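Predict the 3D structure for this chain.
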Amino acid sequence: MFEIFGIPSQALFGQLLIGLINGSFYALLSLGLAVIFGMLNIINFAHGAQYMLGAFAAYLLLQLTGIGYWPALILAPIIVGIIGIVIERTMLQWLYKLDHLYGLLLTFGLALVIEGVFRNYYGSSGQPYQVPSSLAGGHNLGFMFLPNYRAWVIVASLIVCFGTWFVIEKTRLGSYLRAATENPTLVRAFGINVPRMITLTYGFGVALAAFAGVMAAPIYNVSPQMGSDIIIVVFAVVVIGGMGSIMGAILTGFSLGIAEGLTKVFFPEASSTVIFVIMAIVLLTRPAGLFGRG
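Done. Predicted structure below.
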């Protein structure tokens, strides 16, 4: 084992791996928030609860029907996405022309209700969820041990994040979505059902949170509080990257996860606050965020 800056390489690369894992979830969750805010102009404070719902959907699918990890990775986001569509159609659609505060208060209330229901039934302790057998074990790279499941989480997050960015920024569907937020009347003139597009966009953003929840279940366990534990950090990531910026959410999520991991190595006392310090600095120097538009 060799040392880097006086720190054992295994400890350094181990914390970098943890930072990348956390960054993967920060990126996925902030991506969903950016999609929803960019397309719907709603600050979705229920995103953490929807992340938790994804983990619980996978857990309940396994407990009640025996459906394992891989099918749950598809089914859980669909189930939670449908719940999101119902929320958008019955509640959020009335708030689009109002101040952002109304949407924030409604989704914050929803988050409290959802978390309270699950805490009432399952308590505050986490429920175990096994790593799929196909991803058990790991590889010794010499300078560190790389668990297969952790590597899968990082790769899957990168694929989903940059795939979403490509669809929104580089395809015709994405151009329709962006146009619908700027000039919905013009988009309707092309025969496109804008309300349906907005509803499906919210459902997709919620499904991204649920997808992250399923992937997080084997790492962090399934707990009613898992969403509230991460959502404040994710909002900080979105603010730093720029509200509504897809690429900003992705790059900032991964970068801040790595920064947090490195801080645990070199200055452990600041690891829980480093993201908020960075947010304060960014807001003072660039109020719209690193990738945001003024």
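Residues 97 and 237 are 26 Å apart (CA to CA).
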